[in-house]
Amino acid sequence: METSQARALALLNHLYLIGMVVVISGILTAAMVMQYAFGELPCPLCLLERLALFGCAFGILQNLRGPFSDRNTGWTLLFALFLLIVSVRQSLLDIYVRPGHAYIGSAVFGLHMPVWAVVIALCLMIAIGVRLAVLGGNVHMQANDVASFPVVQQAARLAGWYVIILCAINFVSVIIQCGLGQCHTMGYALLEKAV
Length: 195
Description:
74% of the residues lie in helices and 0% in strands. It is mainly α. α1 packs antiparallel against α4 and α2 (44-65) runs antiparallel to α6. The protein is elongated and about 65 Å long.
């Protein structure tokens, strides 16, 4: 393969991966807006879904950060599979409303968050498959890492910092909500103890 063609494929791969990180961070931002602006506390399974999304983002960011590796793509796929398993379980738990157990959260475009998480997990897996099938494997990425494209490297760095900040906010929020015990959607455990 010509070096110019390999360089173009590497650039498209980097842009595609940055796009995936931006979408994942947008989803996580929307979840946190629903939590803080609308008062919809995440349930324990919702928190696991957020963890899976952070895992997907960090797997992608590892490929944008350093030497490109199929291992990082594998981690992203494993976290997407984990997201799918948790969200399918939550959707199945909530498919039949039990007495005293209403669906948690409001619907967005007619779907509740667990169902959206199933869709997101499937879309992530498809997006990774499309990237590998259309843009090729990672062979051309080894010689053309993100440092070869300064503007793309800066965008990847900004996206990475945004995901890290989201992760830190989420971590503090989980500690405030759950304390060091079992997590529920009844309120913020540490704030209630302080009152």
